[in-house]
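Anyone have tokens for DMT family transporter? Sequence:
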Amino acid sequence: MRLFLLTALTMLAFAANSILNRMALEDGTTGPAAFAAIRLASGALCLWLLVAARGGGWRPRLDPAGAGSLALYVLGFSFAYVSLPAGVGALILFGGVQITMFAGALILREAVPVRRWAGAGLAMCGLAWLLWPAGTTAPDPLGAALMAAAALGWGIYSLLGRGATDPLRATAGNFVLATPLGLILFALLPDTVTAQGAVLAILSGAVTSGCGYALWYAVLPALGASRAAVAQLCVPVIAALGGLALLGEGMSLRFILASALVLGGVALAALSGVKKVQKPGKAA
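Reply: yep, here.
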């Protein structure tokens, strides 16, 4: 029960990032560059304090590749939500991350089961249907492209972080190193931020990103890779329901059906990694 509650809390934190970002940008008084810079800075501070409080040294591990991919995710994410609803953005992000990681497995020449091929294909069909231009139900092309870039960044970040021996320290270092990139973009594309927008960005950076990622790394060993992947299936659904309840965003039939294809494909791919338990007495 404890593991279930911690996992559910983590999934709520992940979905809350979409909702907080969309809430801050909805009225146009807070800009995406300012939101992203504050999110990165507050996340860096929160994670740095967690590393220091844990003991064993306060210095985070710096990784330029990890920081660059994290910055691509955060910046693409923030700018995409200028035009995308919360649920649609989360679905594009989630599906794109899985496809990126699937492609990474192929590049690294990992063995890919047939079921994972089928799952990836199904997810790609769902995303293609969602993004296909067809009247007012199709997402904004620029917003979708930016979220796809964010998915690429987070997918690469996840691939790079799979071998991390100290994920919390590595994540803290990536946030610390990515923060100047966010500040540089803000200097190049200055926009405004309200007090409410700043609070939402701090919540997104320090709580739902910083603490959320720390909590995720704490429950990952108990969940295992396949259950962790399946658990994340609920994130776009929670984000869509949050957008519906808190932001008054609609939910089209196209989004619902495309979600079923994407999430079903990801579930199929994730479950392909579950090994059957052998009965006693049978040879391995």
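Residues 16 and 193 are 19 Å apart (CA to CA).
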